[in-house]
Amino acid sequence: MSTMTANRRWPTEGHHVPPATSRRAELWLTGVGAVLAVVFLGGFSVVVNRIDQTTYLEVVRPVLLGEADHLTAAEAFEAGRTLGAWFGFTLLLVLALAAVAVLSLRRRPWRRRSGWWLLAAGLVCLVGSQLIAYPIAFFFFLGAGLTAVRPVRDGSPS
């Protein structure tokens, strides 16, 4: 066996065998958070950026602004489209961070680095939605917390 292939195999003599760990709960929480982000952030982004100004003024403006409306029709429409674009950008960042977290959870579930990716996804979701999507961000925060707190089997300290 060559030295190149010997270094790729796990375990070899003198190396610690990684602990057997299941991060099923963290994967489920990340998946639920990602699906909810797609439905709500993506749905808002698509709807607001595809409707015309009259529909926006009749349907969406009263819901978003309520009685505290001091904007003109054009300003309100532009603000709604800007918010929709911002939610779309936030969704892309959240999904990218969640994908990195899932890959990390699947490849090396014994490492706690995945929790940092989930924490970042939750923070981007929270800040990017201007604190509106806190229930969605909660799933990412919960997954990050479980990654940090749940013990790894086989007695490994990490």
Describe this protein's structure.
- The protein is mainly α.
- The chain is 72% helix and 0% strand.
- The protein is built from six helices and no strands.
- Helix 4 (73-107) packs antiparallel against helix 5.
- It starts with a helix and ends in a 9-residue tail after the last helix.
- The mean pLDDT is 84.
Keywords for this entry:
single chain, 158 residues, mainly alpha, 6 helices, 72% helix
Q: Quick summary of this structure?
A:
It contains six helices and no strands.
Class by SSE composition: mainly alpha
N- to C-terminal separation? 31 Å
How helical, in percent, are the residues?
A: over 70%
Mean pLDDT: 84
Shape: elongated
Q: Quick one: biggest sheet?
A: none
Total helical elements: 6
Q: How big is the Rg? A: 22 Å
In terms of quaternary structure, the protein is: single chain
Uncertain regions: pLDDT < 50 for 5+ in a row? none
Q: How would you spell out the order of helices and strands?
A: HHHHHH
What is this structure's SSE topology?
Layout: H1 3-8, H2 24-50, H3 53-65, H4 73-107, H5 113-128, H6 134-149
Helix pairs in contact: 2-4, 2-6, 3-4, 4-5, 5-6
